[in-house]
Amino acid sequence: MKVITTHNNPDFDGFASCVGMKKLHPDFEIVISGVPMQNLKEYLRLYEDAFPYLTSEQIAKVEEGIEELIIVDTPGLERIGDEIKRKLKPGANITIVDHHPDIRSDEDSEGTVNSAAYNVTKIIRQSGAATSIVTKMMKERGIKPNKMESTLLGIGIYEDTGSLLFSSTTLDDIDAIRYLFEHGLEVEIVAEYVKFDLTIDQKLLLQNLLQNTQVYTIDNHVITITYAETEKFIGGLSAVVAKYWYAQEPETLITVVRMGKKVFIVGRTKSPDVDIRGLVSEFGGGGHRQAASATLSMVAVEEVIHKVLSLLPKYISSGLKAKDIMSSPVRTALAFETIEQVNKIMEVTGHNGIPIVEGDRLVGIVTKKTIEKAINHGLGKRPVKSVMTSKLITAKTDTPVSTLKKLMIEHDVGRIPILDENNILVGIVTRSDIIRASQKQLVQTSQEHEPSFNFKNITEIIYERLDRRIINLLRLIGVYGNEMKMPVYVVGGFVRDLLLNIPNYDIDIVVEGNGIEFAKYVGKQLDAIVVPYEKFYTATLVFKDGFKIDVATARTEYYEKPGELPQVDVSTIKKDLYRRDFTINAMAIKLNPNEFGVLYDFFNCQKDLEEGIIRILHNLSFIEDPTRMIRAVRFESRYNFKIEEHTLEILKKNLEANYLERVSGARIRQEIEKILEEKQPLIAIRRLAELGILKHIFPKTYYTPTMDEKLERVFRFLPLIKQRYQNISDFYAISTVLLEFYDKETLEFMRNRYGYPKKFIESLKFTENMMLPLKSMVESQLTFSDIYKVLGKGNPYIFIHLSAYLDDEGQQYLLRYIDAILSTKLEKVTGKYVMEKFNLKSGPLINEILEKLYAMKLDNPSLDEISTAEKIFEETQNKIKQAEVSENTNR
After folding, report:
1. What is the Cα–Cα distance from 135 to 453, expressed in whole angstroms?
2. How confident is the model at residue 326 (pLDDT cuts 50, 70, 90)?
3. Cα-to-chain-centroid distance, residue 445
4. Which of 370, 455, 704, 838 has a CA that sits 20 to 30 A from residue 38's CA?
5. What is the pLDDT of residues 101-149, one digit of tens each?
6. Which residue, 425, 421, 415, 435, is CA-closest to 328?
7. What are phi and psi of 250, to 5 degrees?
């Protein structure tokens, strides 16, 4: 086992450093011991799905020892979890990343790492935070954190450096913060979790504010107004307000403080619906939408508060509500269903929590963790209501997102069921929904009013790059979606290639609703044939000119076993995209008129597309469908992209575990055939060989430079022979080289696995055995009749196999031979003619005469067939007579 850990009861610096080190070492697991500090604990209640970790209790159940350990933000073993120490193997590799060497390097305790017992590497640098060291390492390695990771790392640095104000702060800390800002650090979220201390005057001021607090509800938003008065100036009002903010956690805070003749207004809000900047602008102030201030002179505090209350409704917008972000319909389980049945539902849908209903009432909710614990204790046959949580935290459809977020944090829940006005369950909101909605609102309400990165309108690109007919068709499909009250999207490769400006008319439509019913409706409107596939909730629309469109229900695919075809369940567009193979194929464009052209990108797919990266969406991707290993190589070679490092590591791991062998030969062959349709298939074949994938498809094939040269010749020869023969399989063509020198038993296995015809295998062995003389005859340009005596009329795959051994000149002579074979016919002399002319009965002699005549005509197309046949007959008769005389003499 490989583990990253920090000191017991971790703070933000310790945990953030762990997350950063995992970016550097993706194959390690984060393990934390003890209870996280309160602010980190609150953070993880909302964000733990984004930063998975194990606890000491969890690894205690794992038998495997720890052979590699990374320790961050502490100088040795003393402060890490006891379970981690127990599992350390003798001679384990330990890396320590810590700061403040002037304080910690002199420690001489029992926890100091024994260099004799372990292989120890220390990375000790002077900085204000261990996270700064880790961030610098990431920057040096070119590893870019995403927005959420940057924010977490930023919290770690800001907290340990007192927002860069402590004397221990170094330039490395500042450089690290700058790097994180470049990659999306959200300072508003940092401000929610970073704590600091106050001066005595500031504490007295805070005490006055706490004593003078009034709470109002305005348009469903809780507004906290606090005030204080003092005759002297007290610096750092913003710090005092921040302390109040962290201690009381109001949704929206307006602070009014008189200091002498000046009155200061400071406002902060967590809600994207409240425009603080707009409010304080009424007092001549400014700032950001969610944090702003103003300064007044010679006014009464009461007057200011009265004006604030009268102006606030003007600066509160409706914003996003639960109904805007919830998933609906909700997958539920019945109270009497067994724990095992509910576990199956979770595996199928990928949900980590499911509401439980009894009759028409919502009675509880159960999480994946609870279900797994119950099964581990042998309770799988019990009804799920025996382990569900009946103390429900619910919300209404018009509950603001900010309130939902607060409910999740206060009650430490990961999902909230949403009820309508009749208390009927109509949706569910998860942590991921809250985070995505918060990020979207933050961007949409920023000073620049830029749209969210993940959702942007690309109508201009659509009109610029697509044919008018396709645009009109997509618009009509969107209109029909509105008429059927279904969200409609075009998805997958079409979107990918549109963004790459590559023509692609393979259109896949996904609807949030019944895809087959939608296809029937569209077919009726556009006079197209509908071919439904009930099992997969899909249909194909076939137009009169042969143009096709595939229509699917937004769905979640799940796999009963690795490598099998998926089972299907109805879902939403996000989950439909999440089931796809790679991020570059996981985007959708909305087609409904009110959102036509909006690009839906939940997984930063555009970034991977721009950077030329092939990345899986989750770590089980290659296990669920191992053919994705082959597909990754196909996309990599087609677009000249690169398989992302972590994806490549998982690919290799699953390849070594023989997951590809679990897939049917037909599906593997299908993926190889798709590679062979690419413009430069040999590049992909080389990559398959380099990664070891080819070895798992053709187990006794050793890809050498010689084999590569053979395939190069085959690919040069293929277009030429395809001009002469129809229906040539490229898969069989390359197999003539890849299956060379296989033993009989393995060839039979390959024939059964990949469906090779028996005649193909026979011709392969024939050519293999005759290759040296055939190669010599062609290269020496012997007469066609001589070659014919050995090769006969052959077949395309014999010629392709032979071409692998010939240079360009040899291939040209072989083509001349093929042309002669295909164009030469005996027009006057037939088997019947020979029988009648020479008074012969049916037998091998007739075929011998015809074969000799045909071979001679290959060399001389203007040959006189009649006279030549007579000469051949006379020669044959003479040979027979000579043989008879010789036989009599011997007697």
Report:
1. 24
2. confident
3. 29
4. 370
5. 543 334 444 445 555 678 889 998 888 899 999 999 999 999 999 999 9
6. 425
7. -70, 160
